[in-house]
Design brief:
Elements lengths: L1 H25 L3 E7 L7 H8 L2 H4 L2 E7 L3 H9 L5 E4 L2 H8 L6 E8 L4 E5 L15 E3 L6 H12 L9 E3 L7 H6 L5 E5 L2 H8 L3 E5 H5 L5 E6 H6 L1 H20 L2 H8 L8 H13 L11 H13 L9 H4 L3 H8 L1
Parallel strand pairs: 1-2, 1-3, 6-7, 6-8
Antiparallel strand pairs: 3-10, 4-10, 5-8, 5-9
Helix pairs in contact: 2-11, 2-12, 11-16, 12-13
Length: 332
């Protein structure tokens, strides 16, 4: 009898141990490594998804790395240093042009306009685009979306960036702002919060928005390799669901509320400045309110690349864009 009791107790103990382990397996947390092309308030919904716990709600543990530049971000993705890249959609076209056997797929759009601003070294009360003619313009990296969108806007206003300006675009992405601060250029194209920080410190003055001038484009999207989606479709769907929640949250909350949530990502920036920038992006419709990258935006992107002389070849929308996941998430 004692022997039977010992066996029964042992079996009970084993079952007690096994049940939690089985439950853990069912609710296993999935790690996802994100590489963002830069740290910017422009990506507010991403930070909201992290801070509000939307990724955790989906059983995802995300780690975020700033990879400083589209080329570096794409290299990190292709070398499996990250799982998901937050970068301009043009990078997926460049990879496709090189004949990749594992194409990079855009699956969730985060921003839908250019996120840069034209900053002047001197204050201009009544700015007009023709005031750039003959000036030294510190632009973004050649072939990158900021530079191409910038050139698109300049041409729209009758300015040939390569003939009417002294165009500088050989400065590394991370060093553009410091170069301007040290005296290079009379105008510069900058992301936030750097543009507003410069204005607050008297280093420059925001005179125009490239976002309001360039129209809707898939400026920044979450993308990953096709193989990753095939092997981790459930994870990508959960990731997209978290982003959609964040997009809806930002859209339905004030700039002040959003600023308070994301302030930890911008420790050296005043809260009121973060609020100002969020409000600026919201008012010009820069934050996408859902993760769908539509066909019209894709065509606009390639038109801008083509006019900049940077489009290797046109790529069909469905070849590099997957909206099935985003549509499924929105239906649910």
């Amino acid at each position: 009898m004692k022997k039977w009791l010992k066996i029964s107790f042992s079996l009970l103990l084993i079952s007690i141990l096994i049940i939690p382990l089985a439950a853990c397996g069912k609710d296993e947390v999935k790690n996802v490594r994100i590489g963002e092309v830069t740290r910017s308030i422009f990506y507010a919904p991403q930070y909201v998804a992290i801070e509000k716990g939307f990724f955790k709600e989906e059983g995802l543990n995300v780690t975020l790395t700033t990879t400083a530049g589209g080329d570096k971000t794409m290299t990190a993705l292709l070398s499996d240093s990250i799982d998901v890249a937050l970068v301009g959609s043009e990078t997926s076209i460049y990879v496709s042009a090189q004949g990749s056997n594992d194409p990079v797929i855009n699956f969730a759009q985060l921003t839908q306009t250019d996120g840069t601003f034209l900053v002047s070294r001197t204050k201009i009360d009544n700015f007009s685009w023709d005031q750039l003619k003959g000036k030294t313009f510190l632009g973004q990296r050649k072939g990158g979306m900021p530079q191409m969108a910038g050139e698109f806007v300049l041409k729209k206003h009758g300015i040939d960036p390569h003939k009417d300006l002294n165009l500088i675009q050989n400065v590394d992405f991370a060093n553009i702002a410091p170069a301007f601060a040290s005296g290079t250029g009379e105008f510069v194209q900058l992301f936030e919060p750097t543009a507003s920080v410069f204005e607050k410190e008297g280093k420059g003055y925001i005179v125009a928005s490239f976002g309001t001038e360039s129209g809707h484009i898939p400026y920044t999207t979450f993308m990953t390799k096709e193989s990753f989606i095939k092997e981790n479709n459930d994870t990508v769907e959960k990731f997209t669901k978290a982003i959609y929640k964040a997009q809806q949250w930002v859209d339905s909350h004030s700039a002040k509320e959003t600023a308070e949530v994301i302030k930890g990502f911008f420790e050296n920036t005043d809260l009121d400045l973060i609020e100002t920038v969020v409000d600026r992006y919201k008012s010009q419709g820069s934050f996408a309110t859902d993760p769908i990258l539509d066909n019209e935006e894709w065509d606009n992107l390639q038109n801008i690349m083509d006019k900049a002389g940077e489009l290797p070849k046109r790529v069909e929308y469905k070849t590099l864009v997957n909206t099935d996941i985003a549509k499924s998430v929105m239906k649910k």
